[in-house]
């Protein structure tokens, strides 16, 4: 069990270090960094490499933003097998809708409860 926590920490930390290097060394904007990490997660899932990473690192691979790209491609591929080309679009929305909905709802609640400084 300790090994599971260790590898989750290491893999999640490496993904974050890569993002920080993109900010500091390559001087990418947050939007470019975010988009790049999502695309990398999508590409890794397209080649079948992200699911083994999740099996190995657990939350270290599912919490970072790369997992969003993984979810998009994974959902699209699953639904494409069932419903063809229409499933590509519906699959992306179906798999990611709960996370996006939660972010919107909790962001709204946070905006109601707290006042910005400034």
From TrEMBL:
Pfam families: SpoVAC_SpoVAEB. Keywords: Membrane, Transmembrane, Transmembrane helix. The chain crosses the membrane at residues 6-26, 33-50, 56-73, 85-114. The keyword Kinase does not apply. It comes from the Bacteria. The keyword Lyase does not apply. NCBIfam families: spore_V_AE. This is Stage V sporulation protein AE. The lineage of its organism: Bacteria, Bacillati, Bacillota, Bacilli, Bacillales.
